[in-house]
Amino acid sequence: MTDRYSVIGRPINHTKSPLIHGLFAEVTRQALEYGAIEGDLDGFEAQVLGFREGGGKGMNITAPFKLRAFELADARSERATLAKASNALKFEHGKVYAENFDGIGLLRDIEHNLQVPLAGRNVLVLGAGGAVRGALLPFLAAGPARLVIANRDQAKAQALAAEVKDERVQVVSYEALAGQRFDLVVNATSASLTGELPPVPVDVFATAQLAYELAYGKGLTPFLALAREAAVARLADGVGMLVEQAAEAFEWWRGVRPETRPVIDRLTVPLQ
């Protein structure tokens, strides 16, 4: 019997998830089919429960439904609880289980694929939205010396830091970043989706080993272009994170972890 999975979001025509999970199923010899569902803003919850009642085993959740997926769940992981959002659901024993693999996927891409360990490093994260909420626990578990969050809305970032309760987490304004140095700079703002540059001073790249853009498939974004001008050694976009978080969900559902490197290579768009 073939198990059914799907991704749901709105819009959904751009999703790479069916391709990724199809490749994972092929290399791991798992009998599953994976589709895509255009989410209904007024009927998202009914769609998810309907998919489950129709025999579905799990779902990936993308924008704008991650918060609603979290609320729909009967049981939630610690990562999902901090993020207050879920990017993966599993249906077992009559319950809906919620997870958030965005942060752990990002961390694995940085540490495993790009070979930049966070232990003892100074890390700067731009933004304080859902992606950052999902990344905080995995990042802190990796042992950075300092994790600085810069966001236009400092109150939002301060509230997030207060939830984490970790003295290594600091919140600053973009202006206060002038003169500061970091080993890793991660852009988790939505600026690159509209071709804009977050108001980050070029100083932050002076000693950076890696500049990481969460947006993927957009080539050299303004953020990455600034990092290149500052002679940052390595630049990366979020395609590795996309594939790694998918692998985490696949393992959660199926009990086997697929090899990710071939899929990352297949989806990578050159940074030009």
Structure, described:
The protein has a six-stranded mixed sheet, sandwiched between helices. Strands 9-8-7-10-11-12 form a six-stranded parallel sheet, sandwiched between helices. It starts with a strand and ends in a 5-residue tail after the last helix. The model has no long low-confidence stretch (mean pLDDT 94). The chain has two domains: 3-100 and 240-267, 3-Layer(aba) Sandwich (Rossmann fold), CATH 3.40.50.10860; 103-237, Rossmann fold. It is globular and about 60 Å long. Strand 11, helix 8 and strand 12 (234-236) form a beta-alpha-beta unit. 44% of the residues are buried. Helix 5 (102-113) crosses helix 9 (239-254). It is built from ten helices and twelve strands. 37% of the residues lie in helices and 21% in strands. With 272 residues, it is of the alpha/beta class.
Query: What class do helices, strands and sheet pairing give?
Result: alpha/beta
* Total of DSSP H or I helical runs spanning 4+ residues: 10
Q: What is the helical fraction, as a range of percent?
A: 25-40%
Name of the CATH class of the largest domain: Alpha Beta
Assign the CATH architecture of the largest domain: 3-Layer(aba) Sandwich
Backbone shape:
globular
Strand content: 15-25%
Radius of gyration: 18 Å
- Largest sheet data: 6 strands, mixed
Mean pLDDT: 94
CATH superfamily of the largest domain: NAD(P)-binding Rossmann-like Domain
If you consult CATH, what is the topology of the largest domain? Answer: Rossmann fold
Q: Give me the side-by-side strand order of the main sheet.
A: 2-1-3-5-6-4
Report low-confidence residues grouped into runs of 5 or more.
Answer: none
